[in-house]
Structure formats: C-alpha cells, structure tokens
Amino acid sequence: MKQDVTLLMVGTGGYASVYLKELFDDSKDHGLRLVGAVDPYVAKSPCAEEIKKRNIPVYDTLEEFYAEHDAQMAIVSTPIYLHAEQVITCMEHGSDVLCEKPLSASPEDAAAMIEAQKRTGRKLSVGFQWSHSETILSLKKDLLAGKYGKIKRMRTIVYFPRDMAYYRRGGGWAGRRKMPGGEWLLDSVACNATAHYLHNMFFLMGEDIPLAAKPDSFTAEVYRINPIEMFDTCAMRLMVGETELLYYATHAVPMDAYRAPELIIEGEKGEIVLRDEGGFKTTGRTHDGECIEYGDPEHNYFRKMYCMRDAILHGDPLPCVAQTALPHLYCIWDLAELFPETPVIDQNFWTHDEDKDQNHCDCLVEDLERCWRDGKLPWEEGFPWAQQPRTWVRDGKYI
Ligand SMILES: NC(=O)c1ccc[n+]([C@@H]2O[C@H](COP(=O)([O-])OP(=O)(O)OC[C@H]3O[C@@H](n4cnc5c(N)ncnc54)[C@H](O)[C@@H]3O)[C@@H](O)[C@H]2O)c1
After folding, report:
1. What local confidence, expressed as pLDDT, does residue 285 receive?
2. 358-360 and 151-159 strand pairing
3. Is the CB of 125 under 6 A from ligand 1?
4. Is the separation of the CB atoms in 126 and 322 below 8 Å?
5. What is the Å distance from ligand 1's center to 194 Cα?
C-alpha cells in the first residue's frame, strides 16, 4: 500500500498558506499527509477555517507538537529570524526539513543549522523554487556540459512594487536589520521577494547541481525610499572568476511598473534568454544554430515540496540544500556590512501616493532599465539620485 509522508507545517499564514492551499487541493495526490501545524497566530491565517474543518491539530510551539506527534517532513515557513531555532528543533525530533528561503540571516545561524543537519543525519533543503524547477535544472546541466561555452555575463532585472502594507505585515519585521531582541533579519528586496533571481545566478554558475558559485567580489549600490532599515532598491555587479553577474531589483517603483524577472546569459558559444512573454519562456540559442526551449521555471511550482518527499521516500538527490543557499546568504550579509546604514534617495526624486499607500520613485523605472541595457550601475550612468557604489572583496571567510 502506498505510504504518504507525514508532514508538519510550521507557519500557517503568509507564504505558508500558499503551501497549505496546495495541500488542501484534494484533486491532487500529494503523497503527503498533514499531521499538524505550529503557529501561535493561526487565527490570522487565511487557512484557519480549513485547518479546523480538517481537524489538523495546531500548536503554539514545536515542543508541544513533538510531545504528541512525529512527522517525517517539516516545512518551515516563518519569519527569517525564527528559521535556525525551528529548523534545528525539527531535525532533532527526526523530521527532514524544507526551510523557506533565505536559510537564515546570519552565517552563524547557517553554520548551526548545517552542524545540526550533519549531527542528526537529517535532510535539509531550502525553498528556492527555481532551483527545483526542471527548466533551471536542465539549463544548468547544459551550462555544466559547456554547450554555451565559458559564461561571460549574466544579467537579471526585476521590479516588484510594494506598498506600505507589505512593510507592515507579519508584525512589521519586513525591511528590518535586526529584531528588537537582537536576532538578525537583514530583510530587503535582495533577501526576500527578489532573492530568487540573485540566488539563481549563483546557482546557475555552480560547479555541480547542488552547488552555487560564491562571488569573489562585488560592487553595489543600495537605496531606500521607505521607512525601513535595509533597502528597497539594489544594483550590483558581482564577479565570479571572470564572469560578470549584474543584478537590478526594486520595490520602489509605482504599483503599475511591475516588471517580471528577466535573465540574459551570454556565453562564448551562445546566449540564453529567460523572459515573461505571457508566461515565462527560457530559450537558448547556440552560435552554431541550435535553439533549445527549456520551458517555464514557474511550472510545477511546488516541486520543492515534492523533491523532499521523494528524497524521503526514494533517497532522490536534493538540488538545493543548505550549502547551495550560502552564496546568497553571504552576499546579503556582506552587503549589510558594506552598508551599515542604507543611503536614502533624495526626497526630490520620490513621492508618496496616498491612494495606493505607496512611496515610489518614478525615475527608477527608466533608469534601472538603462543600467540593465548598458551593463552599468546607476552611479556609472551619472543619474542625479545615484550615490557612489561600494566594493566588497572576498577574504576567504565562507563556512
Ligand atoms: N519562496 C517564495 O517565493 C517565498 C515567498 C514569500 C515568502 N517566502 C519566505 O517565507 C517565509 C515567511 O515569510 P512570510 O512573508 O510568509 O511571513 P509572514 O510574517 O507573513 O508569515 C509568517 C507565518 O509564520 C507565523 N509565525 C510567526 N511566529 C511563529 C512562531 N513562533 N512559530 C510558528 N509560526 C510562527 C505567522 O503567524 C505567519 O503565519 C520567509 O522565510 C520568506 O522569505 C518565500
């Protein structure tokens, strides 16, 4: 008889509710059985009623859950500063864990999680969905096989406009450097909503499927127009060996200026374009005339959940484990060290829209687009709002 993997959900609102909606879709055979949830604020979850209807036991703490139940798998989808403690507790109680990205805010927490993973012998994967997608994985295989030759440059741009409600959600941890209790958060546009697309470049540059490349250096500009400690706008040039990675991301454009992530990879033997054309398309073209359609990285969105299920059931390899997430984690950490205080874009360049309850900077829409086209940073373009970039160079301190 087919055995479903028992599952604990840690967090029930926010992004955790996206998982729960998938799990509550009875038209699908998930191969997973939700045996409990942990969330002291479950009443606020959009899934609260359904959880109750299905008699899923809910606890305030992990200890209370594990006192009465076991779970083969746990999904941890809570605010970042809780990840380390909760993931370690789950692994110590025998659960394999899918932790939402980012793994943690601090390298110290990440090291503790990796130590616990090795000590307990549990599996630990990180919820970067693109790194689990068949599209990105088959592209990575071709990059590793040298189909596109040496990679000269990768460029990513993404605009995800956000209003004030975004920064107020979940008790107001968004955009913070640290929690009032001192726990690291480092929540920003690059570490949260658009983290995937920065991580994706490290992932694609990795020397093997579950590895991601560490930048040797980067030059960055970060900005804010919102009342946050971290930043809502970021432009970076990162070097991995001789490969240039360019990353432009912002929340601070008007609500109607959404721009889906776009990635262009330039290799010596061809080029790959990942773009939203009413659904993402990822197309590779080699200089000798071959055209390869890799598909949509958003397809099979919950593959990250099923990869862990299959790792538990059949020992399948996991494509995005704790170590895979480290280059992104370190990049965010090093950025925060480089910018102990976030430069603010001069008030002359942005406004507050009362109706939409949003601060927005109209010039960013065109200006970041131009940077992306030219392969430059805002300061190099000479934009009047730009401030001098800062440079970080790796000194070998990775875990
Ligand atoms: N993969 C993605 O595309 C994606 C998208 C959004 C968020 N995320 C990640 O998901 C995680 C959660 O983010 P969010 O935006 O949903 O946050 P949120 O604050 O909106 O929701 C967090 C959930 O955790 C619960 N929670 C708070 N304290 C808890 C505790 N002590 N124990 C158990 N549950 C607790 C809250 O009640 C809430 O249900 C973050 O790591 C974030 O980066 C990932």
Report:
1. 98
2. unpaired
3. no
4. yes
5. 15
CA 119 to chain centre: 26
Please tell me if the CB atom of residue 11 comes closer than 6 angstroms to any atom of ligand 1: yes
Residue 399 confidence (pLDDT):
57
Protein residue with its CA nearest to atom 4 in ligand 1? 15
- Output the residue whose Cα is nearest ligand 1's atom 7: 15
DSSP 349-375: G-EEETTTTEEE-THHHHHHHHHHHHT
Residue 277 makes CB contacts below 8 A (sequence gap 6+) with: none
d(Cα 273, Cα 15) in Å, to the nearest integer? Answer: 28
DSSP 46: T
CA–CA gap between residue 378 and residue 236 (Å, rounded): 10
**Domains, in order of start, for the chain:** 5-126 (3.40.50.720), 131-295+326-393 (3.30.360.10)
Distance 236 CA to ligand 1 centre (A): 27
Count Cβ neighbours within 10 Å for each residue of 317-345 and write b for 16 or more, e otherwise: ebbbbbbbbbbbbbbbbbbbeebeebbeb
Cβ–ligand 1 distance for 10 under 6 Å, the answer: yes
* Substitution site in 10, 19, 39, 64 for ligand 1 pocket (most atoms within 8 Å of beta carbon): 39
263: its two tokens: 């990635």
User: If you search the block for the tokens 């009443």, which residue do you land on?
Assistant: 43
pLDDT in tens, 40-79: 999 999 999 999 999 999 999 999 999 999 999 999 999 9
The one-character DSSP state at 322 is: G
Taking the centre of ligand 1 as the mean of its atom positions, its distance from the CA of residue 382, in whole angstroms, is: 39
Of 263, 300, 269, nearest in space to 285 by CA: 269
pLDDT of residue 3: 82
Complete DSSP assignment for 174-220: TT-SB-TTS-B---STTTTTTHHHHHHHHHHT-SSTT--PPPSEEEE
Q: Half-sphere exposure of residue 150, counting CA atoms within 13 Å on the CB side?
A: 6
Tell me which residues of the chain have a pLDDT lower than 50. none
Tokens representing 180 are 């009032």
- Give tens-digit pLDDT for 349-369: 999 999 999 999 999 999 999
